[in-house]
UniProtKB/TrEMBL annotation:
InterPro entries for this protein: Folate-sensitive_fs_Fra10Ac1, Histidine_acid_phosphatase
PANTHER family to which the protein is assigned, alphabetical: ACID PHOSPHATASE-RELATED (PTHR11567), PROTEIN FRA10AC1 (PTHR11567:SF25)
Biased composition (Basic residues): 229-246, 255-275
Segments of this protein annotated with the region Disordered: 10-40, 229-275
Record GO terms (molecular function): phosphatase activity
Gene: FRA10AC1
Protein name: FRA10A associated CGG repeat 1
Biased composition annotated in UniProt, kind: Basic and acidic residues: 28-40
Domain of life of the organism encoding this protein: Eukaryota
Length: 275
């Protein structure tokens, strides 16, 4: 029973199936017709001024230009990714590679290099006036900013050339003010004596940028350095005036009180005589 049923099912499927002997030919004819239609439609869509795409292999010149463009894009991308120093180094190495030379020829000379301290030394002034702040570049602004941070009550002196009547003075900076240099210790550059200090006023005459100027400065010096500052002529000693003022005020007040008492007594005596 089983083989008979299998044969019957195969016969039914063979007769009533979807397969046919002419299916390939029909599909082949239909596909050709479709290809012809699409080609005709494409030909109609082509515009008269439209350039025909090259179907053949590209020419050597076109290929070389396209290669150069691609290489330029890659090179530009790598250069943009570099920092300024790496880019400069690459250019120098490429120049030496293609044109020859030595790396020593490209070394930068540091003869004209300046630090902030060099700029301040070149543009510093002992005293800044309104005339000096008219035309200010960045170098002068830096020097003026340093000058504003200095303390201008007492000076630090260089008395090494006192026999020639030549002295050097400068203002104190923050560290010297904190340590007491120039006020609670001797104001000479190479002296740290703290006993017997006295204040002196010195008329400091100096030449700055071809202009002669004067400034009255104050110093605190020990007895040994006092002789050096007064070697050629006597300087003016600055003495404290606060105590004198107080004593004068006290004495003046006592005298005024006494005079008031005398006036009152005289007035009383005159009044008593009249009675």
């Amino acid at each position: 029973m089983v083989p008979a049923q299998l044969l019957l099912s195969q016969a039914v499927h063979g007769r009533g199936g979807y397969d046919s002997d002419f299916s390939d030919d029909e599909s082949g004819e239909k596909s050709d017709q479709r290809n012809k239609r699409t080609s005709n439609e494409d030909a109609l869509l082509i515009k008269p001024f439209q350039k025909v795409k090259p179907v053949k292999v590209a020419d050597r010149q076109i290929a070389a230009e396209e290669w150069d463009r691609e290489e330029a894009r890659n090179r530009r991308f790598h250069l943009i990714a570099m920092d300024a120093y790496a880019r400069h180094k690459k250019f120098v190495n490429d120049y030496i590679l293609y044109y020859g030379g030595k790396k020593e020829d490209f070394q930068r000379s540091g003869a004209s290099d300046k630090t902030d301290l060099d700029v301040v030394r070149e543009n510093c002034r002992f005293l800044w006036k309104e005339e000096d702040t008219v035309e200010m570049n960045w170098e002068k602004r830096l020097a003026k900013k340093y000058y504003d941070k200095l303390f201008k009550e007492y000076c630090i002196a260089d008395l090494s050339r006192y026999k020639e009547n030549k002295f050097g003075f400068r203002w104190r900076h923050e560290k010297e003010v904190v340590s007491g240099k120039g006020q609670f210790s001797c104001g000479n550059k190479h002296c740290d004596e703290k006993e017997g200090l006295k204040s002196w006023e010195v008329n400091f005459g100096y030449i700055e940028y071809g202009e002669k100027r004067n400034a009255l400065v104050k110093l605190r010096l020990c007895p040994q350095k006092k002789k050096k500052i007064n070697f050629h002529h006597r300087r003016r000693e600055v003495k404290p005036k606060k105590k004198k003022k107080r004593t004068e005020q006290n004495s003046g007040g006592a005298k005024s009180k006494k005079s008031k008492k005398k006036k009152k007594e005289k007035h009383r005596s005159k009044g008593g005589g009249q009675k």
